[in-house]
Amino acid sequence: MVDIIIVGAGSAAREILSIIQDINKKEDRWNIIGFIADYGQNIEKYTKGRYKIIGTINEWIPKANEFFTVAIADPKGREFVVNKLREKRAKFVNIIHPTVRINDYCKMGKGIILYPYASVGNNAKIGDFTFIQGSNIAHDVRIGEFTTVSGLCGILGNVYIGKRVFVGSHSVIIPDKAVGDDSYIGAGSVVIKNVKSGTKVFGNPAKVVDF
Hints:
Strand order of the largest sheet: 5-8-11-14-17-20-22-23
Radius of gyration: 17 Å
Strand content: 25-35%
CATH class of the largest domain: Mainly Beta
Number of strands: 23
Structural class: alpha/beta
Oligomer: single chain
CATH superfamily of the largest domain: Hexapeptide repeat proteins
Shape: globular
Distance between the termini: 45 Å
CATH architecture of the largest domain: 3 Solenoid
Number of helices: 3
Number of domains: 2
């Protein structure tokens, strides 16, 4: 088994713990050492004493045999923490739930987390440290680094999503549209036009909002 440390102590960290446990039910792959976080939830309480926070992100020095998964849902927060650990030469792994369907000829980055029942279509390209919850990523989609796609979204064919984008649950992006870096797609939105970088949109059809 490979030693793994979960980075973060929020709700996403507990969800990713469950994904790793599901993987281990199929194959004894990951030896979960614990969590590192500078702040967060009481992991020991939520896991009935089985796991705990074993140190802080700031102070942790990665060992040669340790691998990390960064369990922080906020794209910018995830990037900040990853860069901190990169400076310490941490090694990152992909966490992919056994129910995920990945079609042929995809290109997958590192540090990716794919939640239960996600689907990735042919020739899609998924950037480093991307979260995809139980959503459908269609053929030829390109998703940039540190983006989060929440649950039950439909990212349709040939869509481009930039870096550090947050796509809220139940959203749809129709084919051939582009979403710029650092954008926010509100839950339940239907994106029928390109979204400029740094823009927040919400609604059906999605329109620029300030919230």
